[in-house]
Amino acid sequence: MVHELTTSAQFQNLLDSKDNLLFDCDGVVWEGDSLIPNVDKVLKHFRALGKRIWFVTNNATKSRASNKAKFDKMGIQCEVDEIFSSAYASAAYLKNVLNFPADKKVYVIGEKGVEEELESVGIKYSGGTAPEDNVFIDLMDFSSITADPEVGAVLCGLDMHINYKKIARGFRYLRENQVRPGEPCLFVATNLDSTFPTHGSVYPGGGATTAALMYCAGKEPITVGKPEKAMLDSIVETYNLDKSRTLMIGDRLNTDILFGVNGGIDTLLVLTGINQKADYEVENPVAVPTYVVNSLGDFAVLADKA
Amino acid sequence: MVHELTTSAQFQNLLDSKDNLLFDCDGVVWEGDSLIPNVDKVLKHFRALGKRIWFVTNNATKSRASNKAKFDKMGIQCEVDEIFSSAYASAAYLKNVLNFPADKKVYVIGEKGVEEELESVGIKYSGGTAPEDNVFIDLMDFSSITADPEVGAVLCGLDMHINYKKIARGFRYLRENQVRPGEPCLFVATNLDSTFPTHGSVYPGGGATTAALMYCAGKEPITVGKPEKAMLDSIVETYNLDKSRTLMIGDRLNTDILFGVNGGIDTLLVLTGINQKADYEVENPVAVPTYVVNSLGDFAVLADKA
C-alpha cells in the first residue's frame, strides 16, 4: 500500500517522522539544467527544520566538487560532503574495500568526474579523457590495443566518448590482467542505469556504455551506485544514522526506490522524472515506494505556511 | 558422442556422406589476414570432388563483393552467390520477410558492408559511415540527437566507430518511431557475436557494439546471423538442399555449431578458432558438434593422396 501524499497535513506528518533525507538529483531536484519548480524553497525549508540532507547521485560524469558547482549555480545550498556520487563512492570502494594496490592503475571508461575522484583518493588511472583513448580506430586495425600490465581494474561509468578502442582495451585488460598475483583484473561500474532523464527526454545511461564490455567479457561488474547498497551503508555508518528516521527520495523505481528498499529505509517516489504510478501498479514491480508525491516542489506549501 | 576425426579414412568417410558444405570463415578458413595452413588446397580438393560450397559468415563489416575480394586476395576460389554474410542476409530479411516499406529508412549502427547490402536490395538508410554520425558529442550536448520520422528500423552490426551519438539516435528511434502506423520501429541485428578472432587474439564483436542499445532500450533485436536459423533456411530453400547430406563447419559452439544444430544438420568443429574440446566437454555445453577435427587443413592429406 503506497501512501499518496497530496495534502499539507500528509506532507507535515512525513517530515515529522524523518530526520535524515537522502535525495536523488536528476528528475528530483533538477531535470538537466532546469530546477524542478519550488525545490529550492523546499530544501531551504527542510534545512530550517533541522533536517540532515545528502544528495545521492549515480551521476558519475562529475566529481563532488563539480557537482557542488552545479548546486551553487542553481542557488541551492550544498556542501561537498553532503554529496555521495557514484564516482566518489567507486573510488573510495576501490581504495578502502577492494584495497586497490598503490602500484596498479585503473583503466577508466568514463568521464572527468571519475578521474577526479580517483585522483582524490590517490589511485593512478589511464583511459578516460586521455586523447589517445578518445579516437576512432580504423576498421580491423588493432595495433593500438596494446597490453598494459599495470592496469589492475577497469572502472566504467557513463561515457559520452565511448568508442571501440576503449571497449577493446577494457576487454583485453579483463582477459589478461591481474590486480594481484592470482587475482583477475577487477571490473567495477559506477552504476548500471539504463537511461537518465535530461533536456525533457531520456538518454542512454552508464549501464548502456558499460554494456558493451559486459557483453564481450561475459562478466558482470561490481556495481557501486544505486540500487546496490554500498553507498547507503557508507552514509549510514559514517554519520551513524537511525534508519527508521531516514528517507530516500527519488524518481526511479529500479535505482532510487530499490536502493532504499535494499538498504531497509522508507522511500518517497516523485513523479517529475522517469517513473509514474503505473510503473509500480503492475504485477511484480521492480520496487514499490513507501510514499509517492507529484513533485518534491509540492512540499513548498509548508514553507509558504511557515 | 563427438566423432574425433584424425585419420584419412575418417576424413574420407565424412566427405563421402556429404554433398553440401557450409563454412564459417574467421577461425576456419583464415584468421584475420592469414590463411589457415593448407585450407586453400583442401577447398580446391572439395571442389574437385564436386562438393557444393557456401561460406556462411557473421562478418557484417563487408559486403559480399568485398568478401569475395578477400577470397580472391587469398587465392581461394569463391563466387559472390556462394557467400551468405549476415549483412546481406539482414538486408534481404528486412526486404523480403519484414516487408520494409519503400518510403522508410534504416538507421545503421555498423560498417560499410551493411550499407552496401541495404543498397543492393534498394533500402534507404542513414547513420553507418555518414560523417555526421561518426563524431564524439560534447558531454551532455544532446542537440544533435534529432528526430527523423522516416527511420523505421535500426540495424546493428559490428561497428568499430560505435559512439554515443549513434547509440542515442538508435535509442530515440526505437522509442519514438514506427515502421508502419501502430507498429514500433524494428530492431534488427546482423549477429550477436560477443567476440571474433583475428590477429592472434579475440576482440569485441557485433554483439558488443549492439549491447549498448539493447541495454538502454531494454529490447532484444531480431537476430539474422548465426546461430539463428534464418540464413540456413534461406540457403536450404534457395538451393533445395538435402539436409542429411549437408555439413556446417565452424570454430564456435555458440554460433556455428548451434547454427547447424538449430537448422537440423550435422556439424564439424575445427579447433583453429575460438573453441576447444574442453568447451563442449562441460556440463550443459551451449552446443555439441557431430564431428571435431584439429584443423580444416588436416583434410589436405586426402588431396595429397588424390
TrEMBL record, chains A, B:
Annotated positions binding Mg(2+): 24, 26, 251
Active site: 24, 26
Cofactor: Mg(2+)
Keywords: Hydrolase, Magnesium, Metal-binding
InterPro entries per record: HAD-like_sf (IPR036412), HAD-SF_hydro_IIA (IPR006357), HAD_sf (IPR023214), PGP_euk (IPR006349)
Enzyme class: hydrolase
GO cellular component, one term: cytoplasm
Coiled-coil intervals, chain numbering: none
Family matches, as PANTHER family: 4-NITROPHENYLPHOSPHATASE-RELATED, HALOACID DEHALOGENASE-LIKE HYDROLASE DOMAIN-CONTAINING PROTEIN 2
Free-text remark on how the cofactor is bound: Divalent metal ions. Mg(2+) is the most effective.
Name of protein: 4-nitrophenylphosphatase
